[in-house]
Design goal:
The complex is a heterodimer. Chain A is mainly α. Chain A is built from nine helices and no strands. Chain A folds into two domains: 105 residues, Rna Polymerase Sigma Factor, Chain: A (Orthogonal Bundle), CATH 1.10.1740; 76 residues, Arc Repressor Mutant, subunit A. In chain A, helix 2 crosses helix 4 and helix 3 packs across helix 4. Chain A starts with a helix and ends with a helix. Chain B is mostly helical. Chain B has a domain of 69 residues. Chain B contains six helices and no strands. Classes of the chains: A mainly alpha, B mainly alpha.
């Protein structure tokens, strides 16, 4: 499944182009959505950002030389758009003077689970951006180090180190949670 | 061991938190969005239009500046290379010979017979070579010279008699020696 991109032929125009883009849309929409959700934690916002990323991808698809790197490109684009959205949401909230926690779209079964999620995300939000992205990508669809390394175009050793640091930080911050569970 | 347990708890919680699925109409919305968004031309398309427009504007500005720029008068030519423009205004019925030379290397004021020729050549030259005031001044000077009768001055008799000038006697100059002051040089007073 990871090698899907290599099997796709490179087409530049017409129906073939549309078909290829459709295929990429079908295969990568969940990835883009989850990356956006990892930043925004809001279903509608995450979908909106993922759609925006695909729209941009469509516009640039013809000029994308190395289409094998489409997924990596899409991930980075979605992440960047999601970060921008968070910032603009914050600005809007400050502007409207109505600072409220975003509603949790997940209908979690109990209060304890909701609380655990809230703490987990708060701890992740405190991580530096590079560590946060690695953490989210590694948690999505069970990506291994190699896949994360490919998606971010960063050496595998760097990914390992970032992931190790991120998990250690999270573990320290969420010690109460892990010891209780 | 506890560390590993803690990590797996975090991983599990994270995976659970991110286990959200995209809505079924996601792809349809993307297509809708692509169709709705206007196709933006690549940036170099803008340049294709901008470059000729900028060039045309620059040409217009340059032309405007050239038209607005005041006509600077030509620097007066060197005196040696100009002809006396006043010559063409001289009356043609002058019978007195004109002065032989105005200045060294300068164009001559021709005799009356050739005034017309000078005037013709003057036309071919730049319009104003000599200021009007100067021309007027020369004209008045020449006219006054013609009006004034010649003054006859008698020469000394000796020159008239044999045409030579005799030796002029000059008294010799006597130089008296300077007498030093009393007490001698260098003596303290």
């Amino acid at each position: 499944m990871r090698e899907w991109a290599e099997s796709l032929p490179i087409v530049t125009s017409g129906e073939d182009f549309e078909r290829e883009f459709e295929r990429r849309l079908a295969e990568s929409s969940r990835l883009a959505f989850r990356v956006a959700y990892g930043v925004l934690r809001h279903r509608e916002d995450a979908e909106d950002v993922a759609q925006e990323a695909f729209t941009k991808a469509y516009r640039s698809f013809r000029s994308l030389r190395d289409r094998d790197r489409f997924r990596a490109w899409l991930v980075r684009m979605t992440w960047r758009l999601a970060i921008d959205r968070v910032r603009s949401n914050r600005r809007r909230a400050v502007h409207e003077q109505a600072v409220e926690d975003p509603p949790d779209p997940l209908t979690l079964p109990d209060v304890e689970a909701r609380d655990r999620h809230a703490h987990l995300w708060a701890a992740i939000d405190e991580l530096p951006e590079a560590l946060r992205l690695v953490t989210v990508l590694a948690a999505i669809e069970g990506h291994d180090m190699k896949e994360v390394s490919r998606l971010l175009d960063v050496p595998e050793g760097t990914i390992k180190w970032r992931l190790f640091t991120a998990r250690k930080t999270l573990q320290e911050k969420l010690r109460w949670m892990t010891s209780k569970g | 061991m506890d560390d590993l347990k803690g990590l797996s708890e975090i991983d599990r919680a994270l995976a659970e938190a991110l286990d959200v699925d995209v809505s079924p109409d996601f792809a349809a919305r993307v297509r809708q969005r692509i169709a709705r968004e206007p196709i933006r031309a690549p940036f170099w398309h803008g340049w294709r239009l901008a470059v000729p427009v900028a060039a045309a504007a620059a040409a217009l500005v340059a032309a405007g500046l050239a038209m607005l720029r005041p006509q600077t008068p030509q620097a007066p030519q060197m005196l040696t290379s100009r002809s006396l423009a006043a010559a063409q205004r001289l009356p043609l019925n002058l019978h007195v010979p004109a002065p032989a030379r105005v200045s060294a290397g300068r164009a001559l004021v021709p005799p009356p017979a050739s005034i017309a020729t000078v005037a013709a050549t003057a036309v071919a030259e730049p319009d104003v070579l000599v200021p009007r005031e100067e021309i007027e001044m020369y004209r008045r000077l020449i006219a006054a010279a013609h009006r004034t009768p010649a003054i006859a001055v008698d020469l000394p008799e000796g020159i008239v008699a044999d045409g030579t000038i005799k030796d002029i006697a000059i008294d010799p100059i006597e130089i008296e020696p300077i007498t030093p002051p009393v007490g001698g040089e260098g003596e303290r007073q």
